[in-house]
Amino acid sequence: MAPGAELPMETQVVATTEGLHQLGALAFERRAIVEACGTPQSLAELAVRLGLHLNVVRVLAGDLRAGRFLTVHEPRAAISTDVDVLRRVINGLRAIPTAAGRA
Amino acid sequence: MDFIAGPRTLPEPAPAPMPVKMVIAGGFGVGKTTAVAAVSDVPPLTTEAAITEVAAGVDDISLTPDKTTTTVAMDFGSVMLDPTLKLYLFGTPGQDRFGFMWDDVTEGALGALVVVDSRRLEDCFPAVDYFERRTMPFAVAVNRFAGAVPHPLDAVREALDVESEVPVIEFDARDSESVRDSLIIVLELALARAMAAA
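YS: structure for the whole thing
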């Protein structure tokens, strides 16, 4: 299996400073991915932004990580049963502005 | 002149937030994307996900016996909860009735909201069944459609035959506060389970 093929779709990808400086070494989709990743985003968002299939982005992101153009931040293992994370998400959702809150 | 760092022409990319995700499931046209849109910071995006298995006996796979994956459109949104924590909301593809093997979407999710139109209750059976088998925390959220005859929640619970632990609630997929509160109900169940297991 290609590196990256198993990455969850919410995995965050960020360009490295070196990657942004070496854009000229890349072409086509690889270059577009590194350019877009000047802002951290998920593989799913990247796929939409660049009009690429999610699985293509997964594989290319894996390649680009190996080449140190990108850093890839996979969700933590067992995050779904992490009490601290669950509490943070609950508190975060309670604080988001809703239509009623804005009215 | 002493240069300690090299010349910087590009700003350092911002650090990535920790991603977490929840799933919004249910039958076709029950309001999944509406619910995602109600709380997402950005209008829902559509990408393609692979369904890796087709429910035998439901979809006709006899014509393509070798085909084990198919690609479907999937809507998702996101909420920046704080600068280091980003919640993604993935709506499962609309073809729920035809197959429900979306491990690609649900893997690692904190929990799921199963959206139900009480006039077409059976459409949510595959989703309920899926999350029960995965032992993923979920709640059943009956969407209040304008003009729809409301069914008592007790009757919905009885028809779905879900465990007593599973919340069966009413919500409005268009209302951000209602969707937000429904997601919190799912997360509180997830938290209770995580604490019980700790």
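YS: worth flagging: The first strand of chain A starts at residue 12 and ends at 15.
IM: good catch. Also Chain A touches chain B through 48 residues (CB under 8 Å).
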